[in-house]
Specification:
- The chain is α+β, with helices and mostly antiparallel strands.
- Helices cover 21% and strands 26% of the residues.
- The chain contains one helix and four strands; from the N terminus they run E-E-E-E-H.
- Strands 1-2-3-4 form a four-stranded antiparallel sheet.
- The two termini are 18 Å apart.
C-alpha cells in the first residue's frame, strides 16, 4: 500500500496501481502515456499516467490487462522510475 492504494512495483519503481471509487475501480499505469493502446482503453491527460476504468458489469479482457502490465514493466526498464 502506497499513496493510500495498492501499488505494484518492480526493482525500479511503481508500474501499476488500483484505486477504488464509488462506482468503479481504476487500474492505472505510471508510464501509461507511453503505452501502445490501439483500442483506446486508457484514459487520462497527464504527462505520464493513464488508467482504465472497471465498472461492476465490465467484461475484463485479461489479455489486454496482461499486455498493459508487460508494457509497464518494459517501460520501467527503459525509462526508469516514473514516480520521481
Amino acid at each position: 500500500i502506497k499513496w493510500s492504494q495498492p501499488v505494484y512495483e518492480d526493482d525500479i519503481g511503481p508500474f501499476c496501481f488500483l484505486r477504488a471509487h464509488k462506482d468503479h475501480v481504476n487500474i492505472g499505469f505510471w508510464w501509461g502515456s507511453k503505452m501502445r493502446d490501439p483500442k483506446g482503453f486508457l484514459e487520462g491527460e497527464g504527462v505520464k499516467m493513464r488508467h482504465i476504468k472497471i465498472y461492476q458489469n465490465t467484461r475484463i479482457d485479461s489479455d489486454v490487462i496482461s499486455d498493459f502490465i508487460k508494457q509497464a514493466l518494459i517501460l520501467n526498464l527503459e525509462l526508469g522510475d516514473a514516480s520521481r
